Amino acid sequence: MNNLALLLGGICIYWHGVFMALAIAVAVIVSFILFKLFKNDSCEDLLNCILLSFPVGFVFSRLLYWSCNFEEYDSIGDHLNFTRGGYTLYGVIIGVLISAAILKILNPKFNAGAVCDCIAAGGALSIVIGRLSAVFSGDNIGLVIKSDKFHFFPLTIYNEQRGEWLLAVFNAEAFFSLIIFVALCVLFAKNSNEKKGMKGSHGDIALLFLLMHGCSQGIFDSMHVDALYVMGNSFVRLQQILGAVSFTVVTVIFAIRSFKINGFKWIQVISPLVALAAVGITLGMELNRISYHNFIRNYSVIFICMFGEAVNGIQIYKTTLRNNAESLF
Fold first, then answer.
1. Cα distance between the two ends of the chain
2. CA-based R_g, the chain, Å
3. Which of 21, 159, 191, 271 has its CA 20 to 30 A from that of 166?
4. Residue 61's closest CA among 33, 98, 32, 35?
């Protein structure tokens, strides 16, 4: 599709940029709604974190993209030409976490957990909108689909430049991000039920977002033909690595918390091992994909591994729930 939305003199406004701006606006609005809806005292903490996250997230998003695409930039001017795109979602996530950490250090009373929870939920919905922008930008796409019976949207999308039908991975990512958003909202409601008391901790929603989003990246980044590769190689994908680190670290955090609350139980040992097994099997399928190109089998196994790890992480999280739990941050 034509990416150009509007031409004002010499200024080009693209649909991709419109969708990105809308995604940011939705993330901010939803974050504030959730922050007030679940009776946090003041929006000042959230506002400060959002304002700081814009420049910090922007820098890290750009730096991560640069680290995987040095060859695209011929000069300093190219590096500073921000209108040409080149950003990563995990850079934004890292920017939010760093911003929250900075504000917590500067102000020990800063409620980093509650702030990150709201931003995580708002961010999940914004990812839905951001992924759909690929309809116009042509990124986040998968393999060429040659069979005519699969040439229909939303499963595939026609690329005019290449003259081919490509797997519309971005639609699946948008759908799963919507599921993540709904799940986080449900957890928000349960954890803030005054009749039952605070069952979870501040920061839990953010951790569960990192868990579920990390698992989704383990699946979908493997399907991208335009994925970001670390150090210019053709195998190690940045988003998959960061996704694996995210869900593994979150699983370990929940296991440690479960041990502190409940004493030793075998699930606290098994859950991190399941996360590591999911990483190992996925790595094996990636190697197999390069050698044998068995699309259906490889991605079926990866999907099972990532879905299993998401369930595993949620199960170990459930063992940490208690009334009036202390805040994570």
1. 45
2. 21
3. 21
4. 98
Asked if the model's pLDDT at residue 92 lies above 80, the reply is: yes
Q: What 8-state DSSP symbol labels residue 250?
A: H
User: Rounded to whole angstroms, how far apart are CA atoms 323 and 283?
Assistant: 39
Residue 322: exposure state from Cβ atoms within 10 A (0-12, 13-18, ≥19): middle
Cis bond before residue 272 (omega within 30° of 0): no
For residue 314, count other CB atoms closer than 10 A to its CB. 16
Whether 329 contacts 202, CB under 8 Å: yes
pLDDT tens for each residue of 206-222? 999 999 999 999 999 88
**Distance between CA atoms of 275 and 318, rounded to whole angstroms?**
16
Spatial neighbors of 198 by CB under 8 A, at least 6 apart, are 191, 192, 323, 324, 325
Q: What is the sign of the dihedral through the CA atoms of 227, 26, 246 and 180?
A: negative
Predicted TM-score of the model (pTM) = 0.90
Cα distance between residue 160 and residue 190, in whole Å? 47
Residue 115 to residues 57, 82, 121, 256, Cα–Cα distance (Å): 16, 28, 10, 23
User: Which pairs with CB-CB distance under 8 Å and at least 24 residues apart come from 250-259?
Assistant: 250/207, 250/208, 250/210, 250/211, 250/214, 250/313, 251/211, 251/275, 251/309, 251/312, 251/313, 251/316, 253/207, 254/207, 254/313, 254/316, 254/317, 254/319, 254/320, 255/316, 257/320, 258/316, 258/319, 258/320
- Mean pLDDT (whole number) for 95-101: 95
Write out the DSSP string of 120-164: HHHHHHHHHHHHHTHHHH--S---B---GGG--TTTEEEETTTTE
Residue whose structure tokens are 């150090």: 231
CB 129, CB 23: distance < 8 Å: yes
Residue labelled with tokens 């091992």:
273
**Tokens found for residue 44:** 């000042």
Residue with tokens 């080009």: 12
